[in-house]
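Project outcomes to date are best conveyed with an example. Our students and postdoctoral researchers have been running inverse folding experiments weekly, and each run begins with a structure described purely in C-alpha cells. The record below, which covers 295 residues, was selected by the lab manager from last quarter's runs and is presented without edits.
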C-alpha cells in the first residue's frame, strides 16, 4: 500500500432518485487518479458511508476496484455502531479486492481506551490488509493519543498509517518522536496540509480534492518537495475553499462545489439536505471568487 501522496476521501454520487450513480463514480475516480492522486478512500464520512445499505457499500467498492485496479489504491472506510458489523465490513472490503482499510472508532458510543482498543483491534486483525487508523476526536469524540497508537502498532503489524485529524499539528511530531518511520502519518484536515507536511506527514486524505485534484496535488507536492514559495502561493488561494472541509456541513458543501464546477451533483442522503437559500448563495460567492483568481 502506497500511503504517500494525495488520496481523496471520495464522495458517493447519487442520481435524482438518490440511488448510487455508479457510472459517474467510476468517471470521477478515474479523473482524480488521472490528475495525480495515488488512490481513493471510499465509504468514509465524506462518502456518506453510514447512509448506505450493506449491498450499496459493497457495490461502491466493486466500482472503485474495477475502475482503479492496477492504477491506484482503493481504501475502504470501516465504521459501524458495533464491533461485529465493523468486522463484517472489513471482511467485505477484503472480498471486494480493496487494498487497505481505514479503521474508525464506533459511531455513537464513545468508550474508554480499553474498549476502543478492543474495537479497532478486532477490525485490524480481521484481515491481513494494511490499515490506517482514523483519529478524529472532533467528530467522533474518541482521541487516540500517541502512546495508545504506539501500543496498537506494537501489537498489529498491519497497522501501517494514521489519518491524523485532531487539528493539532503537534500530533505529527509527537507520533514521529515515539514511532519514527514505523507509522506513516497522513493529514486529514484540509486547511492544515502545509503545516502537517512540514512536521513530517507523508500523505493527505483530502476533501476539496474531489473538485480540485490538480491544485491539490500541486499543493501537496510543492510542500513535500520544499518549494515553499509555490506551496504558499497555492495555499493562500485555496484556503477559503479548504476550510469548507472543517465544518458540520462539509459533505453538502464539497458536493455542491463539485456540482458548481461540473464534476458531480449536490445531492446528499437524508438526514442531510442539499444547500439552499443564504448558505448556497454564500458558497457560490466564495467559489466564484476562487475561480476568478484560480492559480
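After processing, the design step wrote out the following sequence:
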Amino acid at each position: 500500500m502506497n500511503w504517500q501522496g494525495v488520496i481523496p476521501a471520495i464522495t458517493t454520487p447519487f442520481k435524482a432518485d438518490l440511488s448510487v450513480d455508479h457510472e459517474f463514480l467510476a468517471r470521477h475516480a478515474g479523473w482524480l487518479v488521472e490528475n495525480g492522486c495515488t488512490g481513493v478512500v471510499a465509504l468514509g464520512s465524506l462518502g456518506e458511508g453510514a447512509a448506505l445499505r450493506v449491498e450499496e457499500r459493497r457495490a461502491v467498492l466493486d466500482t472503485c476496484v474495477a475502475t482503479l485496479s492496477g492504477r491506484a489504491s482503493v481504501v475502504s472506510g470501516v465504521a459501524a455502531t458495533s464491533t461485529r458489523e465493523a468486522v463484517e465490513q472489513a471482511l467485505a472490503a477484503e472480498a471486494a479486492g480493496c487494498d487497505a482499510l481505514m479503521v474508525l472508532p464506533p459511531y455513537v458510543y464513545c468508550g474508554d481506551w480499553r474498549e476502543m482498543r478492543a474495537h479497532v483491534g478486532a477490525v485490524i486483525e480481521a484481515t491481513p490488509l494494511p490499515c490506517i487508523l482514523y483519529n478524529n476526536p472532533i467528530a467522533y469524540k474518541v482521541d487516540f493519543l500517541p502512546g495508545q497508537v504506539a501500543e496498537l502498532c506494537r501489537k498489529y503489524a498491519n497497522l501501517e498509517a494514521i489519518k491524523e485529524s485532531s487539528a493539532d499539528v503537534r500530533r505529527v511530531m509527537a507520533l514521529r518522536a515515539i514511532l519514527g518511520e514505523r507509522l506513516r502519518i497522513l493529514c486529514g484536515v484540509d486547511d492544515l496540509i502545509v503545516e502537517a507536511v512540514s512536521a513530517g506527514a507523508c500523505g493527505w486524505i483530502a476533501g476539496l480534492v474531489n473538485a480540485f485534484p490538480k491544485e491539490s496535488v500541486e499543493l501537496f507536492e510543492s510542500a513535500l518537495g520544499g518549494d515553499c514559495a509555490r506551496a504558499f502561493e497555492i495555499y493562500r488561494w485555496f484556503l477559503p475553499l479548504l476550510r469548507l472541509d472543517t465544518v458540520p456541513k462539509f459533505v453538502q458543501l464539497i458536493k455542491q462545489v463539485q456540482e458548481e464546477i461540473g464534476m458531480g451533483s449536490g445531492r446528499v442522503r437524508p438526514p442531510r439536505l442539499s444547500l439552499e437559500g443564504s448558505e448556497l448563495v454564500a458558497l457560490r460567492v466564495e467559489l466564484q471568487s476562487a475561480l476568478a483568481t484560480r492559480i
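Residues 6 and 220 are 7 Å apart (CA to CA). The first helix runs from residue 22 to 34. The training component of this project remains on track.
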